[in-house]
Write a structure and sequence with these properties.
By secondary structure, the protein is an alpha+beta fold. It is elongated and about 90 Å long. The protein has an eight-stranded mixed sheet, with helices on both faces. Strands 13-12-14-15-16 form a five-stranded mixed sheet, with helices on both faces. β15 and β16 form a beta hairpin.
Length: 425
């Protein structure tokens, strides 16, 4: 049935049957992140628009086309966060975390917003899990950050993973490459899409990230950044690859991988799940080093590395791999009741069992004992408790072992203790 009100274009509901997947990604991400000593943060969904204009980059698609921005009654220009790194850096600076022992390791999980064309696994409100390591320049951090994301996906039982990795240089060697690339692209501008023709002047590296078929053909013959790296960047990237080799992580070099954000330097990466031949690949996550962003946003020059997982895409991959989530509650005790007095006493007993951390099932909305026992069978309860008019008046409860059929009446005041005894047997 089509209802009058529906979700806005590009946004979606998460139903109970699907939410288990989102919870699983969160639980697994939390467990892995905390093992590597990351601490969780939460930033506001709304941030100052300038944070993204300055941090993400004015020439990026995110800033030019995809931000949900508004002005408050007080005249503040705010934006629904389209990504997590600039807010994490803002938090790091605002709360003086540069005074903490470095590096500072932070992780977050939550909704983000971009106005873009909805596609499979791509929404205008989407969920991400992000990790940021701020205050360390050693190349081992690059490799370990990639490894952490890979480990999370493996823990979620996703297979056929491959990491694409590249080095996009720094402020010393990238300017020369930009000139070389722009010169090549100008000679091919008739074969570029309208956006990329504009990008030649504004930011030619963005053209390497364009998905238009025409631009892909031009990109295939473009000069590669890896051939224009300075000695320091070359050495840094060589170490990253050697670390990845050492831990046996599957990767391939993609000399045209740049990511879509202006603040990246040196190492960039994306993680894919390899599918059937001819099947379009979608990145499950990615990130890179951003050694100049902290200074750009008002701090001292501070090296940093981070990235994020697209949770919606990960969930979709889990479903396609037929990884199932158990949606049923694991209950060992079922509470059946009859009559008004039985329901009254059952409410108190139910709360006593909750406080004792005993997972219990019930169906207070049912009056028929037969229908309640069917539910108890569905749960696979070890014990069923009966509380009717007679038991309520006598202050007792009947406990039945569902496997043996043996039953016994105990005092309500002793019920929790007696139930615990029987569950241990």
């Amino acid at each position: 049935m089509k209802t009058k009100f529906q979700t806005p274009t590009g946004m979606h509901d998460i139903l109970p049957i699907d939410y288990k997947y989102y919870e699983k990604v969160l639980e697994t991400g939390k467990e892995v992140a905390e093992f590597y000593n990351f601490q969780r943060i939460e930033t506001p969904i709304l941030e100052m628009s300038e944070l993204f204009e300055k941090g993400t980059g004015e020439t990026t698609d995110i800033v030019q086309k995809q931000m949900y921005s508004l002005k408050t009654r007080g005249g503040d220009a705010l934006t629904l966060r389209p990504e997590g790194t600039p807010p994490a850096v803002r938090l790091y600076l605002e709360h003086g975390m540069f005074n903490y022992p470095q590096p500072v390791k932070l992780w977050y999980y939550g909704p983000f917003f971009r106005y873009e064309k909805p596609q499979a696994g791509r929404y205008r409100q989407f969920w991400q899990m992000g990790l940021e390591v701020i205050g360390e320049k050693n190349s081992i951090i690059d490799a370990q950050t990639i490894q952490i994301y890979y480990n999370i996906l493996k823990e979620l039982k996703l297979n056929n993973l491959i990491v694409e990795v590249n080095c996009i240089g720094d402020q010393l060697c990238r300017p020369h490459y930009r000139k070389t690339l722009a010169s090549y692209l100008r000679s091919k501008d008739s074969n570029l899409c309208a956006d990329c023709k504009r990008r030649i002047k504004e930011n030619p590296l963005r053209i390497l990230d364009c998905k238009d078929e025409k631009c892909q053909a031009v990109k295939a013959h473009a000069p590669q950044m890896i051939d224009h790296l300075c000695e320091e960047c070359k050495h840094h990237f060589k170490e990253v690859l050697e670390y990845l080799d050492e831990i046996g992580l599957p990767y391939r070099l993609n000399p045209y991988l740049v990511r879509g954000l202006d603040y990246y330097t040196r190492t960039v990466f994306e993680i894919f799940q390899e599918g059937k031949e001819g099947q379009a690949q979608t990145a499950l996550g990615g990130g890179g080093r951003y050694d100049y962003l902290i200074k750009l946003l008002g701090g001292k020059e501070t090296p940093a590395m981070g990235g994020s997982l697209g949770v919606d895409r990960v969930v979709q991959a889990m479903k396609e791999a037929q990884i199932t989530m158990d949606n049923e509650k694991k209950v060992k005790v079922f509470l059946a009741q009859l009559g008004y007095l039985g329901k009254k006493k059952s409410l108190k007993l139910f709360e006593d069992l909750r406080r004792a951390n005993i997972q219990v099932g019930e169906s207070f909305d049912r009056d028929s004992l037969k229908s309640q026992l069917k539910i108890a069978d569905k749960y696979g309860a070890q014990l069923t408790l009966f509380l009717g008019q007679k038991e309520a008046l006598e202050g007792t409860v009947l406990i039945r072992n569902m496997e043996t059929g043996r039953q016994e009446t105990v005092k309500l005041e002793n019920a929790v203790v007696e139930i615990k005894k029987r569950l241990k047997k």
